[in-house]
């Protein structure tokens, strides 16, 4: 049943009205057990949800909403390989990429065996590259899900990376990016990984062709050794002239593909054992999502909180603040995960929705954000729920730094909630601003895997309650089509038939 037709939805609307005067400080004062009852552990992640605008009644109603919209059946359909990506008629099985070998019977046994064959081949190749001292630079050419996942993870796990290899990520069609990286490279010591699920994305293909031209112009030979492709379109990669290809399947969405061959840069960086740890960590979160009762199921609680904030308290964005500089690309990664998945205005049957879906996701690592936009979070006119992500144990030995970092993240959550009374003047902080606190013991391949799988599943939960298809992305197509037309016009100079603004801009940039 669509969420807005359920009794839980109506009850939540009433509850939200009664909730208008909710104050976190009062809630804590009234309930000594609040921190404990609204906190929980999940694999590798401790979550404190208590500084959110929720109470036990809110959570109970949200759980009813999950039940009435068939969340569990939808989740189980994903884990059975049903074609829940209805607009593309595809299964959604990124979770299978981290499932232990040989652990499934029935129709999914064969795909799981293929997953492990490819994984083993890719990890063997990763080890070969790691052992090849002549290769000092690995250049990943890909965009969106073929860039953000490996880029975020290589950075996040830099302390586990093999010394002596540099990693570069080229995504933008803007030639300044590729030209800037190529300037510092030598053909004989560079490995190019062409990462594209479809092997048709114009940015990636343009960059790949330019990289190949550069390689040849630099006197590079042995293309087979210096180029590999990561794609579901093995035929297109072969046509491009790449023989070394690691494939994956149409049931892996681009933004869910870190666990597939798209993870090769990470496997080269942290090695086969590290990559397996990442998969194992993610798998433990899959199991938690599949088996924990809904009331103690962290992806379910987070996804339902997202629905509560978006549709009932009308908060339109969420800010991510990882207090760990190695997680500095995490906000960009989560932005694609949430906004490409749940930025939909129709339900999975194509019917227009009457309620909001994906919030805007944004953020920067702490403490940097504190000296930039946190002013607005503390004293601005909009309430932005925060998601703090911290790591208990550092990997460096520098004195004082980590204590200061952790002091800041805890103090920010406290300050947002507590505020400061100054008779309403410039120094007044209203407080009562909500935040979620996620804590990892250590940042390791396994904990990163669990953290990312947690985020994938919470996006699934809100998308499922909203009744949308979180696994297509038709919204990116129009811009691609129009760019083709405008590109032809930039070359020809023909502006006929365009609106006057587009025509004038085109004439300004036209070089003919
Ligand atoms: O344009 C959006 C998109 O399709 C993303 O979903 C995807 O991650 C990205 O482009 C890259 O696509 P590909 O891996 O096929 O090059």
Kindly describe this structure:
This protein is of the alpha/beta class. It folds into 3 domains: 3-68 and 292-468, Rossmann fold; 94-269, Rossmann fold (3-Layer(aba) Sandwich), CATH 3.40.50.10490; 476-509, no CATH class. It contains 19 helices and 11 strands. The strands form 2 sheets. A 6-stranded mixed sheet has the order 1-2-11-10-8-9, with helices on both faces. A hairpin with a 2-residue loop joins strand 1 and strand 2 (45-48). Helix 1 runs antiparallel to helix 4, helix 4 packs across helix 13 and helix 13 (298-312) crosses helix 17. It starts with 6 loop residues before the first helix and ends with a helix. The mean pLDDT is 97. Bound molecules: 6-O-phosphono-beta-D-fructofuranose. 6-O-phosphono-beta-D-fructofuranose (F6P) binds at residues 143-146, 196-198, 201, 204, 254-255, 340, 473, 476.
Do you know the CATH architecture of the largest domain?
3-Layer(aba) Sandwich
Which regions contain 5 or more consecutive residues with pLDDT less than 50? none
Portion in strands: 5-15%
Which structural class best describes the helix and strand composition? alpha/beta
Helix content: 40-55%
Kindly report the CATH topology of the largest domain: Rossmann fold
What characteristic shape results from the CA principal axes? Answer: globular
Based on DSSP secondary structure assignment, what is the total number of beta strands? 11
| Number of structurally distinct domains | 3
Any descriptors?
512 residues, alpha/beta, Rossmann fold, 3 domains, 5-stranded parallel beta sheet, 19 helices, 11 strands, globular, binds 6-O-phosphono-beta-D-fructofuranose
């Amino acid at each position: 049943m669509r969420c807005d037709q359920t009794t839980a939805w109506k009850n939540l609307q009433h509850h939200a009205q009664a909730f208008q005067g909710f104050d976190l400080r009062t809630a804590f004062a009234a309930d000594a057990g609040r921190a404990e009852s609204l906190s929980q552990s999940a694999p590798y992640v401790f979550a404190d949800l208590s500084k959110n605008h929720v109470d036990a009644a809110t959570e109970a109603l949200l759980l009813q909403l999950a039940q009435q919209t068939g969340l569990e059946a939808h989740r189980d359909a994903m884990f059975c390989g049903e074609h829940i990506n209805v607009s593309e008629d595809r299964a959604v099985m990124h979770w299978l990429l981290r499932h232990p070998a040989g652990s499934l019977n029935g129709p999914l046994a064969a795909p799981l065996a293929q997953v492990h064959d490819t994984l083993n081949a890719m990890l063997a190749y990763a080890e070969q590259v790691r052992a090849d001292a002549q290769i000092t630079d690995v250049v990943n050419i890909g965009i969106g899900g073929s860039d953000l996942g490996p880029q975020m993870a290589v950075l996040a796990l830099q302390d586990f990376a093999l010394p002596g290899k540099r990693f570069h990520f080229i995504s933008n069609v803007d030639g300044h990016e590729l030209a800037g990286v190529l300037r510092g490279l030598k053909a004989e010591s560079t490995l190019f990984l062409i990462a594209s699920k479809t092997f048709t994305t114009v940015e990636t293909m343009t960059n790949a062709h330019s990289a190949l031209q550069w390689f040849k112009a630099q006197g590079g030979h042995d293309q087979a050794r210096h180029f590999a492709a990561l794609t579901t379109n093995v035929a297109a990669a072969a046509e491009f002239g790449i023989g070394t290809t690691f494939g994956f399947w149409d049931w892996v969405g681009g933004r869910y593909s870190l666990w597939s061959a798209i993870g090769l840069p990470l496997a080269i960086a942290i090695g086969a054992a590290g990559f397996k740890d990442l998969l194992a960590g993610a798998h433990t979160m899959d199991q938690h999502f599949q088996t924990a009762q809904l009331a103690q199921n962290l992806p379910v609680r987070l996804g339902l909180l997202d629905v509560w904030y978006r549709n009932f308290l009308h908060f339109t964005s969420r800010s991510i603040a990882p207090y760990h500089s190695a997680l500095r690309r995490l906000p960009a990664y989560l932005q694609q995960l949430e906004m490409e998945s749940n930025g939909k205005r129709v339900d999975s049957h194509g019917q227009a929705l009457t309620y909001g879906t994906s919030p805007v996701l944004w953020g920067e690592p702490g403490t940097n954000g504190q000296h930039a936009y946190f002013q607005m979070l503390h004293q601005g006119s909009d309430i932005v729920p925060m998601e703090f992500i911290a790591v208990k144990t550092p990997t460096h030995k520098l004195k004082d730094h980590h204590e200061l970092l952790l002091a800041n993240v805890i103090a920010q959550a406290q300050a947002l909630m507590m505020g400061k009374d100054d008779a309403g003047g410039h120094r007044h902080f209203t407080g009562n601003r909500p935040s979620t606190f996620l804590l990892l013991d250590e940042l390791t391949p396994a904990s990163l895997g669990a953290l990312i799988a947690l985020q994938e599943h919470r996006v699934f939960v809100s998308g499922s309650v909203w009744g949308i298809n979180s696994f297509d992305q038709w919204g990116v197509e129009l811009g691609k089509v129009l760019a083709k037309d405008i590109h032809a016009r930039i070359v020809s100079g023909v502006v006929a038939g365009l609106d006057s603004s587009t025509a004038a801009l085109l004439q300004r940039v036209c070089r003919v």
